Every structure is written in structure tokens, then in C-alpha cells.
Amino acid sequence: MTIDDIEAVTGDWEREPDPSDSLRTFGAVVQALREHAGLSRAEFGLRVRFSKHTVESVELGRRMPDEEFVERAEEVLGNTGALRKAARHLTRGEPGLAAWFRRWARLERVAVSLSTYECRLVPGLLQSEGYMRVLCENDMPPLSDADVEATVRARRKRQLLLVERPHTSFDFIVEEGVFARFLGGVEVTRELLDHVIEAVAPRNVSLQIMPTRSEQHACLAGPIQLLETPDGQRRGYSEGQESGRLIADSKEVGRLYMRYARLRSQALSPKASMDLLEQMRGAL
Questions:
Q1: Which of 67, 104, 160, 184 lies at a CB distance of 3.0 to 4.6 Å from 134, suitable for a disulfide?
Q2: 149-181 pLDDT, tens per residue?
Q3: Is the N-terminal amide bond of 123 cis, ω within 30° of 0?
């Protein structure tokens, strides 16, 4: 039985349902090195003892290479160490999460503190399911039913952080106008307010509302997300239309922390924020 036959039966590795950027980048590096060596996919496959179809899948970012593939490819392509080092940073795609958000989402899972300021919409960690679905329905171009369900599943799974990490500090500052928008109508807004009030009840979660009428505002430049890792490293995240940026530069992160700290002093207190949400809920 040939290598192709074996892989046809076993499926080799599972095909990635949602290839990540790191897989695509790793595959492009493998392809570039292979072509530089003057090898076809079939020739390279024979040398690393994997089929040309597997080589193609790795190069296109459709499969996660295992350790044997990396080691054999490294030996065939010059033994520079580049593939071994690159393989350490490989991550799988996560359906329902935007590609540019996935690195931040992974950091959230180990963070000891997470601070979020949002002026566009309710933060994902606090969204009700009805609100999530309305956001998906308003997306352009329109999402398929499968994409909507994947997004909702991924977001609800991410929300488990608030329950499963009781020793992590979660702080949110959200503009008053976000809750007053009534996205999806009265029923969706009522469900949303009930959900938010319940979600911020634990002692490690706090919500402050930035009032619409305010003479001061430290974060007019846009939304901010900040976190601290168990080893004391601080990171920031900035998101816009069709893009997101993980911020590691200590000076830039420091400026974002200063802005967030000032905004906390300008926003309503957690108790006043809850009172306002209760008033908005009662007015529906």
C-alpha cells in the first residue's frame, strides 16, 4: 500500500476546519524553501515520507503539521532551525472568532486581569444570545446560518471565562449610549440588560457606565482592551473594521493603561452604573 493509499484510509491528520494565519504563514515558508531547493511537491514528499497531497495541504495551511513532518522537512530543507522555531507558534483556527482576534482570545484564557472599554457595542463577554444574533444579522456581507451559529457558539464559550476564572479580575467600562441604542428592539434590549446585570454580579466582575453627558473623556481615541498575564506582562488590543492589533510595546501599553485608569475616574461608579441599568430596564 502506498503512502497515498494509507492517507486516503486514515485521513492522515484532520483537515483544519478554519485554517489560522500561523498555519498559512508556516505553509508559505515550507513552500518557499522547497521551491528554493528545486523540489516538486512529489519529490519533497518522497524525501520527508509524506504524500504530495499532505505536502500541499501543509503548504496551503489546511493541515497542522506533526512533529515528524517538521523534523524531516527541516533536515531536507537545510537544517537551519527556521521550521522548528516557526512550528512552536502554530495555532489552530477557531470557528466563530475573527482571525485577527484569536491571539487575544488565547491570552484572555490565562490572564489574571482583563480591562475593557467599549463605545460601539456591548463587549462580547457580556452579550446576551439574542444580542449576539442581532449583531450577526446586521453584519455585511450577510453571514450564512452556519457562520451565525459558529459565532454564537464561540462567543458563549468565551463567556465561560467569567464563571471559570473566579480569581481573574474583569473590569468593563461601556458607554451609556451603547445600552440606549435598543439594538434589536425592546425584547432583545430587555434580555440584554437582564443578562448584563446578572453577568456582573460576581465580586470579580465590575461594570462602569460612561455617561453620555460628560465634560471629560480620556478614551475618545476608541475602544481599549488590556490584560495582565500570570508572569506580570501587560498587553493591549485595538480593533477596527476588519482588523485587530495586539500591542506588546511597553510604552504604548503604558499609555493605554493611563487612559483607562483616568476613564475609570470619569465613569459612574459600579453601584451607580447598576442603578442606571435598572432604571433603563424598568423603563422598557
A1: 184
A2: 989 999 999 999 999 999 999 999 999 999 999
A3: no
